[in-house]
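Tip: read the tokens left to right.
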């Protein structure tokens, strides 16, 4: 067929993914090719325990807590590494599985110096404690040598390296590599000699670490913990979490600010934040204590006839600024004024600044520090 030049070109529509079904705890559910069993269990709100799993990371299959029974298989399979196939029959809870999980949690609990760590340690820091309590695994049946040696000599102000609480789930190593691309931390040795470390076993400040804090937020035991938040553990009051946007640049990372009373005690990255998906930079993660710094200005200051700064009202300060702008405009013309919006300002404030410069002074000399 001859197509006329005026006709719209035919676009190839993408082929929708094929929908398959399997049986999950007696219920027929759908899935698409490439999904793992743990993906499907989470989507259908099944409580499958795990310690080495983080949905942002490639499946690892180390902790064996997420095992499920698969009809036709001789042994339970790890749901995080098993791809779903059509007509599978999967069971997530049986007496056999629960016994297996309880024994595993008893063994994991025997590996750690502390099970109960402060919730301010990090986003996932309570995961192991919750599982130990869920499976009543504080039995002390297993005792013996422990792995991991804490680095109390690392005096960085952000990350606590308490490896006596490490269970070698490697989530910290994997998030540093897979999410951040820093490869700042790794694993050395095997068995009871396993140790999370940096190159040449040095300090974090001497490594490729950017102090983004992702290792803290994925750690399920508090072995890696937020030192800035833990410094506020004695602040009285209940911890309240408030969803907001990080003010440090124009990316717009979503954060959960933790407060007790009127004081900020820590910051958590929002795992469902559309711009960051659980990631933060060193400023967004740790630079929150300036809010309560004693040197922070709380009242406008204007310079008096004596040349010194004096406290003033907001109206007085704004009038002084307006007078200064008008004087410059009258003496040097509209091109003597320009504006640079801060990346820490919200979109509405940036819009008002460009209106202030363009409409108020008649010049297009306006920029934003986030543009570069």
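Filled-in amino acids:
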């Amino acid at each position: 067929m001859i197509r006329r030049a005026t006709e719209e070109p035919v676009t190839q529509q993408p082929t929708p993914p094929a929908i398959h079904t399997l049986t999950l705890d007696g219920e027929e559910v759908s899935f698409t090719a490439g999904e793992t069993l743990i993906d499907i269990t989470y989507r259908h709100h099944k409580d499958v325990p795990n310690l080495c799993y983080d949905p942002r990371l490639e499946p690892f299959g180390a902790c064996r807590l997420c095992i499920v029974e698969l009809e036709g298989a001789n042994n339970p399979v790890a749901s995080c590494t098993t791809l779903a196939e059509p007509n599978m029959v999967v069971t997530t809870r049986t007496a056999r599985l629960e016994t297996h999980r309880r024994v595993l949690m008893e063994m994991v609990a025997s590996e750690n110096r502390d099970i109960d760590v402060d919730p301010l340690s990090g986003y996932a820091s309570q995961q192991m404690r919750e599982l130990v309590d869920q499976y009543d695994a504080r039995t002390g049946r297993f005792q013996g040598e422990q792995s991991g040696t804490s680095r109390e000599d690392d005096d960085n102000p952000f990350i606590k390296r308490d490896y006596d609480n490490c269970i070698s789930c490697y989530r910290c190593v994997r998030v540093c590599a897979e999410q951040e691309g820093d490869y700042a931390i790794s694993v050395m040795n095997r068995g009871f000699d396993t140790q999370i470390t940096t190159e040449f076993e040095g300090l974090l400040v001497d490594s490729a670490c950017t102090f983004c804090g992702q290792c803290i937020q994925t750690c399920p035991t508090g072995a890696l913990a937020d030192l800035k938040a833990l410094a506020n553990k004695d602040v009285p009051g209940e911890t309240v979490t408030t969803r907001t946007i990080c003010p440090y640049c124009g990316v717009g990372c979503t954060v959960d600010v933790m407060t007790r009373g009127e004081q900020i005690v820590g910051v958590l990255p929002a795992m469902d934040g559309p711009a960051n998906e659980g990631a933060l930079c060193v400023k967004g993660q740790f630079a929150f204590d300036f809010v309560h710094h004693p040197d922070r200005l709380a009242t406008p200051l204007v310079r008096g006839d004596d040349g010194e700064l004096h406290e003033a009202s907001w109206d007085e300060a704004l009038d002084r600024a307006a007078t200064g702008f008008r004087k410059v405009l009258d003496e040097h013309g509209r091109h003597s004024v320009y504006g640079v919006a801060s990346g820490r300002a919200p979109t509405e404030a940036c819009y008002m600044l460009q209106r202030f410069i363009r409409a108020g002074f008649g010049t297009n000399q306006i920029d934003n520090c986030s543009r570069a």
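The chain is about 25% helix and 20% strand. The first helix runs from residue 37 to 43.
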